[in-house]
Amino acid sequence: MCFFSVICICSSSCICKFVIHLIKNNCVLAHRDSVIGTRHIPQCSRASKDGRTCVVRNATERPETFRKQPNRFKMAATLCGRLLPRLAWLPARQSVRHGSKAVTRHRKPVHFLKQKLLAVTEYRPPRPAVPERCIAPPARQTQEESSLARILEREVEAMFQEGKMIAVVQNNATSAEDMLLFKSRLHKHGIAVRFYPNQVMRSFLSESRYRNLSPLFIGQNVLLVSKEPRVKEMLQCLKGAPQMVLLGACVEETLLSRQGVLAYSRLPSLMAVRGQLVGGMALMTSRTAALLQHHPARLSALLQQYQRQAGGGSTEESSKPEHTDLQEV
């Protein structure tokens, strides 16, 4: 638009200069719709072919000058009529409004006193004496248990029946390589690693006597199962895997916490306890036999002592008169 406006200004300035030059030579260019000159000119010596422009001469000018240069005057008149602005034309550049109207009606806000009055006088239906949630029990969505979950529950039940030690361990982002090494260490001591979904474990524990273990199954958990209570070996393997945290265990149908498992590991082995028990029982039997033999042995000892004392007294009486006789003699 700017380039076009510059061209229009330059062309209009050139045309104005040309018109001024013609006026100095006593010639007037007129157009029917233009501002230059009058609309009704009585003396018109020559008209253009399109009938829009005419060349008017002065009384003092000779008519031959118009005949010699008709094309130049015709071109100047045509340019003036087409390029110069007319009275009824619109400007080349206008600002047009697009969008909504300038004048719009907005809803007047309600006065705050009226708002308060409306809020106070608003109808509120009375509440029922008994809440609706107490009248109608909430609907429970029953989900059918999948066949895979049933199979896993059976495996868990068999595991709790056969295994004497079942430990719950939390897995804290253990890599696959570390998990493989951990499994191999436990396998040397006869401890297996099992993975079961928490939903399956909770559904089984909720209906069994081990229901107190259900709070431990949150997050990623691992089960360490063995047919013998190998607590010391398990704790030694857990020391080498800091990502595995012991939460609790069920040892010989007894639920133990972490501290309980540590205390259980400090107990002597079963063979040592059995040896101590056998030694104590043998000691008690030997002591019982000694106690049973104590009274007869003491009785025989007392009788022997009495016999000795009785035999010693008779010999003393027989020896005394001889001694007296000797003294008398």
Short description:
The protein has helices at residues 2-24, 64-68, 70-83, 112-120, 132-135, 147-162, 176-188, 198-205, 231-239, 258-265, 270-328; strands at residues 27-31, 46-47, 53-57, 165-171, 192-194, 221-226, 244-251, 255-257. With 329 residues, it is an alpha+beta fold. The protein has a domain at 149-266: 2-Layer Sandwich (Alpha-Beta Plaits).
Question: Would you write up a description of this structure?
Answer:
Its main location: mitochondrion. There is one protein chain. The chain has 329 residues and is of the alpha+beta class. It has a domain at 149-266: 2-Layer Sandwich (Alpha-Beta Plaits), CATH 3.30.70.1730. The protein contains eleven helices and eight strands. It has helices at residues 2-24, 64-68, 70-83, 112-120, 132-135, 147-162, 176-188, 198-205, 231-239, 258-265, 270-328; strands spanning 27-31, 46-47, 53-57, 165-171, 192-194, 221-226, 244-251, 255-257. Strands 5-6-4-7-8 form a five-stranded antiparallel beta sheet. Strands 1-3-2 form a three-stranded antiparallel beta sheet. Strand 2 (46-47) and strand 3 (53-57) form a beta hairpin. The chain is elongated, with a radius of gyration of 65 Å. The model is unreliable at 1-9, 26-68 and 321-329 (pLDDT under 50).
